Every structure is written in structure tokens, then in C-alpha cells.
């Protein structure tokens, strides 16, 4: 994604704009995690590798923050997330 909102938020219904903003935040953080982890694999310097992995871990915290806000505001998302958890338990036992 690299600093560009992947969808046009201009036409979004104001009632759900904040929810969509939270989803974009999650996308951005997941993108950052992938980027930092890929760079860590390539880094030659041990300290840079450690720093990149630490930053990726912080981004995972940010995903949790955005997700918590999203689940607080989008009850359908909460229900579907629980449904997904149950389906995984049924399919793979985890």
C-alpha cells in the first residue's frame, strides 16, 4: 500500500466512514508488518534486523488497536469474526 489509501473514502456514507477508516488502518498496518519482516530477512546487519522485527511487532499492536475499535463499532464484524473462529475450530481443531 505504501502510504496510499486503497479505496476512495469520499463517497462513503458518513454513518460508516469511521468503520472504513479503521479498516484502512488495519490494511496499512498489515502492509507495514509485511514490509518490515521482508526487509528483516534481507538485512545483513544484525542490529537492523532486530530493529525491523521489533518495529513489525509494534505494528501488530497497532493492528490490535484498530481491530478493537472496529469490533467495538461494527457488531456484524464481531459476529462474523466469532463465526470464523468456530469454523476454524471445526475444520482444523484450533
From TrEMBL:
InterPro entries: Encapsulin_nc, EncFtn-like, Ferritin-like_SF. GO terms for cellular component: encapsulin nanocompartment. It is found in: Encapsulin nanocompartment. GO terms for biological process: intracellular iron ion homeostasis. The keyword Iron applies. Keywords: Encapsulin nanocompartment, Iron, Iron storage, Metal-binding. The keyword Oxidoreductase does not apply. SUPFAM superfamilies: Ferritin-like. GO terms for molecular function: metal ion binding. It holds the Pfam family EncFtn-like. PANTHER family: PEPTIDASE U56 FAMILY, TYPE 1 ENCAPSULIN SHELL PROTEIN. This is Rubrerythrin. It comes from Candidatus Magasanikbacteria bacterium CG10_big_fil_rev_8_21_14_0_10_36_32. The lineage of its organism: Bacteria, Candidatus Magasanikiibacteriota.
Amino acid at each position: 500500500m505504501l502510504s496510499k489509501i486503497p479505496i476512495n473514502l469520499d463517497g462513503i456514507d458518513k454513518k460508516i466512514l469511521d468503520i472504513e477508516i479503521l479498516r484502512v488502518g488495519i490494511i496499512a498496518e498489515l502492509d507495514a508488518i509485511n514490509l518490515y519482516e521482508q526487509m528483516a530477512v534481507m538485512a545483513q546487519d544484525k542490529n537492523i534486523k532486530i530493529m525491523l522485527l521489533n518495529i513489525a511487532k509494534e505494528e501488530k499492536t497497532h493492528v490490535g488497536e484498530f481491530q478493537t475499535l472496529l469490533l467495538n463499532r461494527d457488531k456484524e464484524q464481531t459476529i462474523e469474526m466469532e463465526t470464523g473462529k468456530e469454523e476454524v475450530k471445526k475444520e482444523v481443531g484450533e
